[in-house]
Design a protein that fits this description.
The chain is mainly β. The chain folds into 2 domains: 6-49; 52-127, YopX-like domains (SH3 type barrels, Roll). 0% of the residues lie in helices and 44% in strands. The chain has strands at 6-9, 16-24, 30-34, 43-45, 51-57, 63-65, 68-72, 77-84, 89-94, 114-119. It has a 6-stranded antiparallel beta sheet, with no helix packed on it. A hairpin with a 4-residue loop joins β7 (68-72) and β8 (77-84). It is globular. The N and C termini lie far apart (39 Å). The relative contact order is 0.16.
């Protein structure tokens, strides 16, 4: 059975935590991540930082998540990994001055050419 992996920043120290996503409540929708190795532990995270794993890895074997800022090594282009809800795939969202390269290219098509250089939460300055 496929296991989806998420990450989010904890509310108490703003560190990343990885595991299963749990959403509770009708109105306030508290968001939790449950680590895989501790089924009784639920940690509340900032729902605005929750990212899903692409289940792919960059050239350095670093796991690639939605919200990661990556560099396409062959071209030097910088982009963000995003989820396209209508196409049902992760894709590259290029910087504004590089939009001519944005062809909604599926991330799997260029995986051997990617290096994760940061993410939009810890390193937003990499994508300005």
């Amino acid at each position: 059975m496929r296991q989806y992996k998420f990450r989010g920043k904890t509310l108490y120290d703003y560190d990343w935590i990885y595991g299963n996503l749990q959403i509770a409540g009708d109105y306030d929708q508290q968001t939790y991540i449950n680590p895989y190795n501790d089924y009784d532990k639920f940690t509340e995270v900032d729902k605005n930082t929750v990212c899903q794993s692409t289940e792919l890895f960059d050239i350095n074997e670093k796991e690639i998540f939605e919200g990661d800022i990556v560099k396409l090594l062959s071209s030097g282009l910088i982009c963000i990994i995003k989820w396209h809800k209508y196409l049902g795939t992760f894709y590259f969202d290029f910087k504004e001055d590089q939009k001519e390269n944005d062809k909604k290219l599926s991330i799997g098509e260029k995986i051997k050419d990617i290096e994760v250089i940061g993410n939009i939460y810890d390193n937003p300055d990499l994508f300005v």
